[in-house]
Amino acid sequence: MASRHDGRVPVSSEGAPPRRFERLRRHRRALFVVAVVLLLAQMAFAMVSTAVEQTPTIDEPVYVGTATVYVQQHDLRFNPEHPPLGKLIIGSGLLFAHPHLDPAFQGDQTELGRHLLYESGNDPWRVMLWARLPVIVLTLLFGLVVLAFTRELVGRVGALVALALYAFSPDVIAHGSLATLDVPASGFLLTSVWLVWRARRRPLLYVPLSGVALGAAVATKMSMLPAVPLLLLLTVLSVWHAGRPDPTAMPPGDARAKARLLGLGAAAAAGTALVAVAVVWATYLAVDPRLRWTAPADLPAVHGLRALVIDGLPVPQPYRDGMRVQFGFENTVWAGFLFGRLYRGSLWYYLPAALLVKTPLGMAALWTAGSVALLAVRRLRPAVPYLLIPPALLLATAMTGSRDLGVRYALFMPVFLAVAAGCVVVVRRRWAGIVTAALVLFVGVSSLLTYPYYLPYSNEAFGGPEKTYLRLHDSNVDWGQDLGRLADRLERNHPRERVWLVYKGAGVPSAYGIDAADPRTVPADRVHGLLVVSDTSIDKADARLKALLATSRRIDEVGHSITIFRRP
Fold this sequence. Notes:
Strand order of the largest sheet: 3-4-6-5
Radius of gyration: 25 Å
Oligomer: single chain
Shape: globular
């Protein structure tokens, strides 16, 4: 009997589909296309309009400055802790912005970003928009990967559920509208998994393509490296499946045939690894064909197993030195903030807790239900290693990290689990479709209500985006994105008032017309008027700033990330 998702229709006794069924099939296809277009259009509008309004977040000027150096000077010296591909993608937009950068500039990567945006005669709004547009386009294309992957598993209805969760995800929209690396890395990895899944039918075509996508993922962010051994094992699994599509085709005792299939799988995995390594090399050579590189003077020393891993990888020297920089970050003690508690170091449960706060409630319910369906429904179980194990592995790895700075370190979760959630449509209960539709609608409403403040989103159980700063900090809520909005608010509501500003971000307040001084640099009795403080600075306030806040009255907020006080 045909599955409800296999696209077949009844046929007449003459062997041709009845006309009414043909019309119905065309109408359903048209509705499916319209729904896809509407979901992606909503996402595109949300990301573009958000990108237009937001000032640079903390990491963006570094990436944009580095991308400009890549494009104009073909030099690898900046930002070695991240491979070049993501910044080359950002640089593709800068080709249209034509930013000016002094070739003789000397300074570190933070100074580079500041110099490019604010000290070189460039329009920072224009430069940032062009830098963000390629990431926005890529985020939309990854939505099509989510759609295609889920449709292959459970059909069109499940695909629309998955795409809706992806397209309404506040975290995906927030970071997909920035010139950063988290969405591209997660999307490339999902693409690699989808292609290796397709290799179960046509390995000769999809195994090499999977290697290209895997190489793109690790050439964008090194945090994708733990997934490489798993992807190679999945390649072996897919080739094994392709070699014996019929379980009865190979007798249980046919050891020679099994060995042959394992050999083919191992060869395919080796080929995937070679292709991925070639992509990494290609991204460095695209920046500088001569691969000129001088290691930073302050390059951290790495010993033990980490050193063996670094030295054993067949990647360019700048990549290996970038890994050393990343391990240096991991050896640093960072400040964290969770549920009102400021602490030093890291908490192993930080990322799960932060995801609990920042994931829409309906989305979390569908992630759970879809994952259960994958495990419970026999025909879907082969997809479990492809859909559930990669994000679980990456999350477990990220939970051991030292930087409790935001759910962006686990952005692969809403990307992968959107596909898993789409599998909930296989539940054959009368109420299941209604509940699924209601949960998707709940997610959509929650996402639309937070517009355009996606970065500080938290779900209704934790008070919504205006309360996020009470529980989380940094890129979860306040990443410097609202400096332009603050300038507009001060000009409109508080013209000619004295402004004292404690701002956490990479922007330059004076570049947006904000004339302010730091209240921490003068005696407290001289601080009168407006006291404007980034919410992360409130969370991490020292004794001096706490005293100033205690004697001030909260009167306004900007973008759920900056609070305005009045101090008499």
